[in-house]
# Entry
Amino acid sequence: MGFIIGPWLAQSVRAAVDLNLAEHLAEGPRTAAEIAEAEGSDPGATARFLRACASLGLVATTGKGFAGTETLAVLHRDAPMSLRDLAASQSTAVTWLTWARIPEAIRSGEAQTDKALGMSFFDYLAAHPDQGALFGAAMASMSAPVIREAVEVIDVSGATTVVDVGGAHGTFALAMLAKHPGLDAIVLDLPHAVPGARAAAAERGLQDRLTAVAGDFFEAVPEGDVLLLKFILHDWADDDAVRILVNCRDAVRPGGRIVITEILIDDQATGMAPLMDIAMLATAGSRERTLAEFDDLLTRAGLRRAAVTAVQPPYFVIEAVVAA
# Structure
């Protein structure tokens, strides 16, 4: 039953985000009536929903109403590792309608976004800027613990320019700039993502060191010493992934490196990795890959693996250089 009612749980978390429960309860307990008044929601339905949230451990009942829990706290917009945007993004139509076609994805081995949404996943995000912005924010929050560890292991000696390829709001690039004061950064992404990257840089006072440019990594990649590819290659089938890597090979300066941050999967994988693999099948017709499969992509692109380092499970940092 826990598996079967999974959709109920996900949409309950989404409703908790939509009603701003974490924010309302951050300073102490509040009654259902107080939350309903603040949100303009139906008082009776709000009380029933809070009762359901208590059964899930999102809130706790007290003599003064409902109190937040540690579980709810990660849905607060200001939490250090907030999952608010991810919870909202993963329970909206762009993901929900595609996941509803998982059986068809498995039978056909093909992405289902065209059938579910009428267009490809990324075309849909571009056509719906609000969803594109939410997805970018969600990927930033999902990336945070991985980036925090990745910036500690990436060697930037001799580098002056980092390029965040398909970097959305530039979260990875900004973390690299904060860690290494001598670096500048370029974020490359589709036009709908550029304003978010510029705003994120300005918010952190790094707008003078970060340039956000609109472009297509299938066409060209800006020149740099360290090229970052975080959660990019798993979006694409092998031939497309090789095209991206070839453009990165052409853009990396002599002595530079291409840094790939992705899940590594194998037949014994557990937890999120195998489920993410199915998500990539349904949304993009792509896959998570084994280390051997990454090596094959690199070889086809005229690159070779120089190092691989484990970071936040199940993610790894793969460093590649131009093959001799």
